[in-house]
């Protein structure tokens, strides 16, 4: 998905002609035939996409882009707001495109999003491009519906309920304090990589519990490789990011298998999501048993989902607070009041403290709207579906555009203004979906907000920060501040 690096031109390359090639020149005729066939395939594909289907309905308007590539490069290298809004202005609230090798229909209407994700979700199965399913694992909960999905969702939700994650507050606080301690001796910080460290540690805590197995060592580097492949073009060729990711996934799967085996041998299933999944298999009343492969796929998927998106959201949170000094001052004042109460009572931060952070919570809500980390989600039509007078053919991907809905002035006046006060009143139904909607909404949303609140509490009462990098946004695939938001931090006592 990332463009190839540009060729560097130096005086040497200009002054001296290249040496003669050791290879004979390619015959012209095969090249002509190759390009003729390429044009023919392109023409046939465009005809198949643009032809009017049988019956009274036609395909939505839009562009399918180049063969195979479609509009993938445009989506992942442009400002997503521009990509979606330009097509919405040209084609309307429903339009076709071609992303990651799949024909797609994008929708930017809350009514249509509700239809796809909630009221008629049985007609739109959860799916991702095949390449992404391969990397995460085909048995992960994200890709299923029906009894298997319901069983898994119930187990996963039980590990992320408020009553469960309350007990993680001291451990999350320890992770924050350990991270911020390293900042005291390194006043120039690259925010996104630091937030990835933090979010990864919290994800590991929630999945494996407080006592980590020795086999878990090295898992972070495998996830980093997995992430690069997930966000790349799905070319399974030697040395490509996707190929490396598939190899890393195999190693990761084997590590998890050994952890599961060791816990079984000890007869101790442990804490966290892994413990919950293993305990469910031993419960006598449970009809559905999970294989080790199914457990591993879901562990890989949950860590992946909890890691990158949360880190990106916290990075944007720091950017928005920095750019709005009056909000930073107000949030700091709210957190200082809680800190004073803690110090008077000689205690650490508690779950109840986080529930009293009303302004900070609204700032986080606005961050999730403005950043819209997940621009869309994937569904697949299980049969031909009519929508707004258009046909969505069976097998086509359907993408509700959360970002477009979040930036609609109809639902969020002055959408480009960062304004947490808008959340003093609850948004209209189906207009605010930072964690998705329906049966496949993110089960870890409360944990994500909890780790953001605890981090903001200690950051604002310990440091002040100044953004040192250039303004701008990078895309790949999540939009993030340029260069991961480099900042210079100052301990409060020095300010």
From TrEMBL:
GO terms for cellular component: membrane. The keyword Ribosomal protein does not apply. Keywords: Heme, Iron, Membrane, Metal-binding, Monooxygenase, Oxidoreductase, Transmembrane, Transmembrane helix. It is a single-pass membrane protein. GO terms for biological process: abscisic acid catabolic process; response to abscisic acid; response to water deprivation; sterol metabolic process. The chain crosses the membrane at residues 26-45. Its cofactor is heme. It is found in: Membrane. This is (+)-abscisic acid 8'-hydroxylase. It comes from Mikania micrantha (bitter vine).
């Amino acid at each position: 998905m990332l463009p190839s690096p540009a060729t560097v031109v130096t005086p040497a390359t200009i002054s001296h002609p290249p040496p003669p090639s050791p290879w004979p020149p390619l015959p012209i005729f095969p090249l002509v035939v190759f390009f003729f066939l390429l044009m023919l395939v392109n023409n046939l594909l465009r005809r198949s996409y643009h032809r009017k289907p049988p019956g009274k309905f036609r395909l939505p308007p839009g562009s399918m882009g180049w063969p195979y590539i479609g509009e993938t490069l445009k989506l992942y290298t442009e400002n997503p707001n521009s990509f979606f809004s330009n097509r919405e202005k040209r084609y309307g609230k429903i339009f076709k495109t071609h992303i990651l090798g799949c024909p797609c229909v994008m929708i930017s209407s809350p009514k249509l999003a509700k239809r796809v994700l909630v009221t008629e979700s049985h007609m739109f199965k959860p799916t991702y491009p095949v390449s992404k399913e391969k990397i995460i694992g085909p048995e992960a909960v994200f890709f299923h519906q029906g009894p298997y999905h319901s069983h898994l969702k119930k187990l996963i939700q039980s590990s992320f309920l408020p009553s469960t994650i309350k007990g993680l507050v001291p451990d999350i606080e320890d992770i924050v304090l350990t991270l911020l301690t390293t900042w005291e001796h390194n006043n120039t910080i690259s925010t996104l990589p630091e937030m990835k460290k933090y979010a990864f540690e919290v994800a590991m805590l929630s999945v494996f519990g407080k006592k980590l197995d020795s086999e878990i060592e090295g898992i972070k580097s495998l996830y980093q490789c997995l992430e690069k492949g997930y966000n790349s073009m799905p070319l399974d060729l030697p040395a490509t990011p996707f190929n490396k990711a598939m190899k890393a996934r195999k190693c990761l799967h084997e590590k998890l298998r050994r952890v599961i085996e060791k816990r079984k041998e000890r007869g101790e299933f442990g804490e966290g999501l892994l413990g919950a999944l293993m305990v469910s298999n031993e419960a006598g009343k449970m009809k559905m048993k999970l294989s080790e492969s199914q457990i591993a796929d879901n562990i890989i998927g949950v860590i992946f989902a909890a890691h990158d998106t949360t880190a990106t959201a916290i990075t944007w949170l720091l950017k928005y607070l920095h750019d709005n000094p009056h909000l930073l001052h107000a949030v700091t004042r709210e957190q200082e009041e809680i800190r004073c109460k803690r110090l008077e009572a000689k205690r650490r931060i508690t779950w109840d403290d986080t529930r009293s952070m009303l302004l900070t919570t609204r700032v986080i809500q606005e961050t999730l709207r403005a950043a819209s980390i997940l621009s869309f989600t994937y569904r697949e039509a299980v049969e031909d579906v009519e929508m707004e007078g258009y046909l969505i053919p069976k097998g086509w991907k359907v993408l509700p555009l959360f970002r477009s809905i979040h930036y609609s002035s109809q639902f969020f006046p002055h959408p480009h203004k960062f304004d947490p006060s808008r959340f003093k009143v609850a948004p209209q139904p189906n207009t605010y979906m930072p964690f998705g909607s329906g049966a496949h909404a993110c089960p870890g949303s409360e944990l994500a907000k909890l780790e953001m609140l605890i981090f903001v509490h200690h950051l604002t009462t310990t440091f002040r920060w100044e953004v040192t990098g250039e303004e701008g946004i990078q895309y790949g695939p999540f939009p993030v501040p340029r260069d991961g938001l480099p900042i210079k931090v100052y301990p409060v006592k020095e300010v």
